[in-house]
Write a structure and sequence with these properties.
Chains A, B: This is N5-carboxyaminoimidazole ribonucleotide synthase. Two copies of one chain form a homodimer. In chain A, about 35% of the residues lie in helices and about 25% in strands. By secondary structure, chain A is α+β, with helices and mostly antiparallel strands. Chain A has three domains: about 90 residues, 3-Layer(aba) Sandwich (Rossmann fold), CATH 3.40.50.20; about 60 residues, ATP-grasp fold, A domain (Dna Ligase, domain 1), CATH 3.30.1490.20; about 190 residues, ATP-grasp fold, B domain (D-amino Acid Aminotransferase, Chain A, domain 1). In chain A, helix 3 packs antiparallel against helix 4 and helix 4 crosses helix 5. The longest helix of chain A is centred in the middle third of the chain and has 18 residues.
């Protein structure tokens, strides 16, 4: 059904993934219009949203047709090419965030240059064209180093760790063949990974969420603990201030996630994302205003909601697909075992290693919460019988 | 979009009001299928749900066509006639709650007789056919008395207070013309109104929510305070036990709301509802499992979720339409004034006195929360400029 209510604005989200799915839930409560541009009717958001347009999110004509029925366009991902965004903007479409901000989430070279300019703490880095550039860099930082595709990637990857000049050469050869610009970064020795989210509205209002710890394995976020246990309060505030500074300097509108490494001596910025982010799924139950509602408020230039926590600790664990495709049968048992676990399924077909949902638990003792969340996730994946 | 995922069950809700709208939000997180049978594309749930069938909720053919694509049928209201429900059930449709339970929510005479049989505390009552019956009743209880239509009502009303035999005669004459069976109840002198919700699954599992205070004005629920302030703990437990007993005795599946009057000497049962209920909207943020998720779990025979409170107090205030149809413009100011207020709009056209949404606030001091919720509701209605 898509009876458009003209007295409330309508937000269009490009991309039909789980971020759009959860943003739809928030849009229902706010009573604003919400449309999704999806690739396929089986996309996570397309399965449940009442107002879906199918189309290609890189096609100027599909995007501009979609934009015609929306007051504001926002994004579930960063894949819309900058020239397409510029064209839409020139035609009068309101893009939030706009291409001037988004390009820093789309291009890691631009991002690093801008972060360095702002004085934000970064790993040592440089753009590289040849293996000799990498050798030169590693002569200073030591091996291994991290090679990153500035935009996109190839062979389904965007980040490589190279332990030697030879390994670096292989990666760069592949990148050259694929026409992908590359950068190298020192491999940061970190004690843990942190993330912080802020929302910024066109009016310039900001709201900062508590700094969280993210637990990654094999490059995939497995758990998020909010707030990051034992984080020095002064450091937490400095991290929030850093994110706010970045949001203002880059002109971000909507949610900004800043992923960081915590080291012995402080923090360094790892990545930026300008949309709701996996590190903020805990906010659905764990914060007074979820990141999805906050993103909508921000892109609609509404006053922002309170970002404070609703419990001393919230732990989120991603649900990764396992060998058993019948996850419904499995989750009945998780529900029976722990009636306090909040389950979020994305409606996606189960494939091994694929993010198909998440669980959230709230309480006082984060170690207990982490054990419960891990238990639910491992049972759902099929690691336990 | 309505790609049905065959590996998860699909719940069909009859009725496209705000209860279906909020149940849709809960169904998204659970990852189960959710369909709505709505009267019109502008129904509250039809506006946002991805899987809507338009049809008449009293038509056997529309209902059975709808039921074909659902594993379980449940209800946003009590208006489907019992014979239609019986026919569906005979044809193999899984109805939760089923007609054996639902008739007690559809017929106040049946309900009173059954409550009396169970020994549940009730106001004095009797079925009445003539004004003489009412006079006889009032000779014992005194005037005024409450006259109720056993089913439905007439002239848009179902409850009348009669202060004299003459007033009673007028009401009964109207009822006789409309063919509506009537009952009379004593007018209970109460100190306040309470409500309790329990969920029950076909397996027989139950979960009881905290007892709440409901604040009614002109027969409309204005606010709900959870838990009911100052309620004696023993009485609270007895009320929960009463609701559980009713749920079991009536074979309720899904949410059951029991509305009560609290008097000097105890409580008496006022009304029953077998679906998510206005007195439970506070559970979206205020309980670990919302009534909407719990209803879905129950009708799907899933293990029930934890019903405990997430904050010491939660206050919900209904948003009633005022003279200004542009409620969006007004809510911007409410958001700016109180970033902690949770707003829920139902997407309905604004009409004076119509329930168009609700707000929820959570915290430690219920008087402060009540003031904030009332302030938001009165501003949105337009009572404040």
């Amino acid at each position: 059904m898509s009876e458009r209510n003209r007295s409330v604005p309508s937000v269009g989200m490009v991309g039909g993934g789980q971020l759009a799915r959860m943003t739809h839930q928030a849009a229902i409560a706010l009573g604003v219009g919400f449309r999704v541009l999806a690739d396929s009717p089986s996309d996570s958001a397309a399965l449940i949203c009442g107002d879906v347009q199918l189309g290609d999110d890189r096609s100027p004509s599909d995007l501009s047709a979609f934009a015609k029925s929306c007051d504001v366009i926002t994004f579930d991902h960063e894949h819309v090419p900058e020239p397409v965004l510029r064209e839409l903007e020139k035609a009068g479409t309101v893009l939030r965030p706009g291409p001037d901000a988004l390009r820093y989430a789309q291009d890691k070279l631009l991002m690093r240059a801008r972060m360095t300019e702002l004085g934000a703490p970064c790993p040592r880095w440089r753009g590289v064209a040849t293996a000799a550039d990498v050798d030169e860099f590693a002569a200073v930082t030591g091996w291994p180093v991290v090679l990153k595709a500035a935009r996109g990637g190839y062979d389904g990857k965007g980040v490589w760790v190279a332990g030697s000049g030879e390994e670096a050469r292989e990666v760069l050869d592949g990148a050259a063949r694929a026409g992908v610009p590359m950068l190298v970064e020192e491999k940061v020795v970190f004690t843990r990974e942190l993330a912080v989210q802020v929302a910024r509205s066109p009016y310039g209002q900001v709201a900062a969420y508590p700094v969280v710890e993210t637990v990654q394995r094999d490059g995939i976020c497995h758990e998020v603990i909010a707030p990051a246990p034992g984080l020095d309060e002064e450091r937490a505030v400095r991290i929030q201030e850093l994110a706010i500074e970045i949001a203002h300097a880059l002109g971000v509108v909507g949610m900004l996630a800043v992923e960081l490494f915590e080291t012995e001596s402080g923090v360094v910025v790892n990545e930026l994302a300008m949309r709701p982010h996996n590190s903020g799924h805990w906010t659905i139950e764990g914060a007074r205003t979820s990141q999805f509602e906050q993103h909508l408020r921000a892109v609609l230039d509404l006053p922002l909601g309170a970002p404070g926590a609703t419990a001393p600790y919230t732990v989120m664990a991603n649900l990764l697909g396992g060998a058993d495709p019948d996850v419904y049968r499995r989750y009945v048992h998780v529900m029976a075992k722990d009636p306090g676990v909040k389950i979020h399924f994305y409606g996606k077909e189960v494939r091994p290693g694929r993010k198909i949902g998440h669980v959230t638990v709230l309480g006082d003792d984060y170690e207990d919460l982490l054990a419960r969340a891990r238990d639910a996730a491992s049972y759902l994946k099929g690691d336990q019988q």
